[in-house]
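Title: Comparing notes on inverse folding

I've been comparing how different people in this forum approach sequence design from structure. To keep things fair, I'm posting one structure and asking everyone to reply with a full sequence. Here's the target:
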């Protein structure tokens, strides 16, 4: 927003914002929570609101918490955060728009009752989960996250175990304010940047912490299907990288370069205490990723045991590549997040696809009355991402849906696979997800012909070829939508690629053996290679006291030493580990095909044992436990809407108070991603004769408060209420004019809007124009010879310096400056005559 600074006084008009884009959410959908007892929390929260366009009523002040920033009890969490948050969302009319919660540092990150430990972000997501059986190493059924892997808009897929409103909550924090501000600035800069830097999925030598490696191939494959070849799996213990878009690893201790990540990156390590961010646990906290440039990271706040379900699946990089925001991608990738802390900036969306928008006729400052027609035009960013819905927000609060174009009943979705065509007709009340299910069912009914299986996931259908010896390049796919029996075509169906993509994965089989071996017990493998050659090998225990782990390790060594298995069509054993099965000692290892791809995985392995020992799998099996990662793959995407969305909306202005209002039109991409396009107009509504003005009084040398006068044009005024960041900051009754004094410490450092709502005895209301104040008040100083103009600045904030030689004439722009440190200096020409300067601050 534009703020005009002249010495100590800040005067402002609301900014005309156009063509802003947010994936699956924007500042309109964020609730920012600040700890009123922390100046750092206040300043960071204020800066977040400024940079993300969060309406002032979306800030919640947590006023009574003084118990530190690490632990709080479930009762304290509920009393100080959850209950006030729910009450705020309800009473301020934010239920239809609040999806994200941003916790602005110095708020506890662990909720603990002494036995059970949850993160604060997870407790806001789906409630506090008790974990009484098995301690921290259990996995309660009701801690499962139904939103995970859904590829649905969060509003349509909130977790089914949440007992109250559910929020995609993230904590923006660090050990100091500057570091947290850097994370915010880099995250905002990431939007629509389309990074091409690499993501590394690192399998380390730490066998306890590298367990996510079995999920790597799926993420790589999904990204490659949509053309993103920058997600790569590697085997390394190193974290000495720069210029990455992401890193997923498994280490207890590591160090990262300060420039390890480009803006918008996500990274984390699977380790016990990564989420203990402000404690000395002997392990590297997740903050290391943020301080190295990442926009978000994740870690557990208590020993979780190495359940992969408690940590992010690397498929989150695919969700990001689709355009989902960071919070959406991260929460969809964690199946059981109750012990996990999400830290970073929730709205970062490097791959969101912007469209464009403009009002057809409405001008900034126009006066509206009665029923006013609002006309807008939105254009999709790409042809396969249509726009389906447009909403109107008034002063940052949802007002009404202006138009909606769901899939039209009767539209026909047509898919041709390997020359066979199948159709699905859109039914009444079909959503994108239900249409995808219907189409997938239709495709599966012909799988005996096409030899392709369809798996619906949200608005996407994953296709897998079922024929081992047919390469993906020979499996053809085409898709389209037609109007069918409908009156218009609002449904689109697109294929990711015209032919299927072959895998880069290696087939494997997981082998488990258990029980304590006796002398004479044995393990035997028979392998039938793809050329039908048979190889049999066995190991027998000859020593009393041998463990099952030792016997199994001997078998692994024998497999890897057998020359007949070392060729390209052979097999190797790796990733050995030991534990228990039903309380009995056990060992586990992986059998890998020596070549990539599905055909190479068709080696048949048969494991047999002496009667005392137990094993799994039973019978003869290929090396294809990861069969879905081996089959050639493709995607279909169902979407709704139109690429050119025109809106003509009759707005009843009598539902609004008279005075100044900001109208924000938001169009949504007609996919599960729902990227937003926002365009703003600032207008005046005038349906009665009531009006009022608000003016800021010069602060002088007193910086502990700011003052405003509000003057109505009538005498029958019953109430004047002044609003700023977080809500009401003052009330006067039965006065036609009032002076308000606001404590700057209460508001905190940053940019703050002020407006007043005036009500007369007849119930008529008038909202004044908004005035913006920056706290602390900026004072321009002149120093040196030749003279230099100097003023304090906020790193990364943009300032416009303006000047005039006569206050009766307009100010002219001298220069635009982005602050690179805490003070800006600008040399001015000493022309021997008076000059006047002011600074315009643009967030």
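Reply #1:
Here's my take.
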């Amino acid at each position: 927003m534009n703020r005009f600074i002249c010495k100590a006084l800040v005067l402002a008009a609301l900014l005309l914002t156009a063509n802003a884009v947010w994936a699956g959410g924007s500042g309109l959908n964020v609730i920012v929570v600040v700890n009123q007892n922390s100046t750092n929390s206040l300043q960071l929260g204020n800066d977040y609101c400024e940079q993300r366009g969060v309406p002032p009523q979306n800030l919640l002040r947590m006023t009574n918490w003084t118990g530190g920033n690490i632990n709080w009890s479930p009762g304290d969490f509920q009393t100080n955060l959850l209950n006030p948050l729910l009450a705020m969302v309800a009473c301020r009319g934010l239920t239809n728009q609040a999806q994200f919660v941003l916790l602005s540092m110095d708020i506890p990150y662990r909720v603990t009752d002494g036995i059970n430990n949850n993160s604060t972000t997870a407790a806001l997501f789906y409630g506090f989960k008790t974990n009484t059986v098995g301690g921290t190493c259990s996995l309660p059924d009701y801690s499962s996250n139904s939103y995970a892997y859904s590829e649905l808009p969060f509003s349509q897929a909130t977790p089914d175990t949440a007992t109250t409103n559910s929020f995609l909550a993230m904590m923006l924090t660090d050990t100091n304010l500057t570091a947290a501000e850097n994370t915010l600035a880099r995250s905002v800069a990431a939007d629509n940047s389309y990074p091409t830097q690499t993501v590394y999925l690192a399998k380390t030598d730490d066998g306890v912490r590298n367990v996510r490696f079995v999920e790597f191939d799926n993420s790589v494959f999904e990204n490659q299907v949509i053309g993103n070849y920058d997600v790569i799996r590697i085997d390394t213990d190193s974290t000495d990288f720069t210029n990455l878009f992401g890193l997923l690893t498994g280490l207890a201790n590591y160090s990262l370069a300060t420039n390890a990540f480009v803006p918008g990156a996500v990274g984390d390590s699977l380790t016990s205490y990564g989420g203990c961010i402000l404690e000395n646990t002997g392990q590297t906290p997740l903050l290391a990723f943020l301080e190295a440039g990442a926009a978000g990271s994740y870690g557990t706040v208590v020993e979780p045991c190495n359940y992969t379900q408690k940590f992010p699946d690397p498929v989150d990089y695919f969700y990001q590549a689709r355009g989902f925001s960071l919070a959406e991608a991260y929460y969809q990738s964690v199946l059981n997040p109750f012990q996990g802390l999400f830290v970073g900036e929730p709205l970062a969306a490097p791959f969101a696809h912007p469209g464009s928008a403009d009002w057809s006729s409405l001008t900034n400052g126009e006066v509206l009355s009665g029923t006013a027609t609002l006309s807008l035009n939105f254009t999709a960013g790409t042809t396969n991402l249509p726009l389906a819905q447009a909403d109107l927000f008034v002063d940052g609060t949802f007002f009404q849906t202006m138009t909606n174009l769901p899939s039209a009943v009767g539209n026909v979705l047509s898919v041709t696979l390997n020359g066979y065509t199948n159709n699905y007709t859109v039914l009444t009340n079909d959503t994108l997800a239900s249409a995808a299910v219907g189409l997938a069912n239709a495709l599966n009914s012909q799988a005996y012909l096409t030899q392709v299986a369809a798996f619906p996931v949200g608005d996407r259908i994953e296709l897998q070829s079922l024929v081992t010896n047919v390469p993906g390049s020979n499996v053809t796919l085409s898709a389209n939508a037609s109007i069918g029996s409908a009156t218009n075509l609002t449904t689109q169906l697109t294929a990711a690629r015209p032919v299927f993509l072959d895998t880069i994965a290696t087939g494997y089989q997981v082998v488990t053996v258990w029980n304590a071996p006796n002398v004479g017990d044995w393990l035997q493998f028979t392998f039938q290679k793809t050329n039908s050659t048979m190889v049999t090998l066995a190991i027998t225990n000859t020593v009393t006291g041998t463990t099952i782990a030792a016997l199994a390790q001997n078998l692994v060594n024998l497999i890897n030493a057998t020359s007949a298995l070392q060729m390209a069509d052979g097999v190797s054993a790796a990733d050995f580990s030991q534990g228990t099965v039903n309380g009995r000692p056990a060992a586990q290892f992986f059998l890998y095909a020596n070549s990539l791809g599905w055909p190479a995985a068709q080696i048949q392995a048969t494991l047999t044992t002496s009667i005392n020992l137990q094993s799994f799998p039973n019978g003869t099996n290929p090396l294809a436990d990861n069969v879905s990662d081996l089959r050639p793959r493709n995607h279909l995407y169902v979407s709704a809407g139109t690429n050119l969305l025109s809106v003509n909306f009759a707005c009843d202005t009598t539902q609004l108070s008279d005075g100044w209002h900001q109208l924000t039109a938001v169009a949504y991409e007609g996919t599960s991603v729902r990227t937003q396009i926002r365009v703003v107009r600032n207008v005046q509504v005038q349906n009665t004769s009531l009006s009022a003005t608000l003016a800021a009084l010069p602060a002088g040398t007193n910086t502990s408060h700011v003052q405003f006068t509000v003057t109505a044009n009538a005498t029958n005024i019953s109430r004047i209420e002044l609003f700023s960041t977080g809500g009401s900051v003052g009330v006067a009754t039965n006065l036609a004019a009032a002076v308000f004094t606001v404590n700057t410490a209460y508001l905190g450092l940053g940019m703050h809007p002020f407006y007043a709502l005036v009500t007369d005895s007849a119930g008529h209301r008038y909202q004044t124009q908004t005035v913006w104040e920056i706290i602390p008040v900026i004072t321009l100083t002149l120093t040196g010879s030749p003279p230099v103009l100097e003023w304090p600045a906020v790193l990364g904030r943009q300032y416009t310096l303006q000047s005039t030689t006569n206050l009766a004439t307009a100010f002219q722009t001298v220069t635009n400056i982005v602050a690179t440190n805490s003070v800006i200096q600008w040399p001015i020409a000493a022309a021997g005559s008076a000059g006047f300067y002011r600074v315009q601050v643009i967030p």
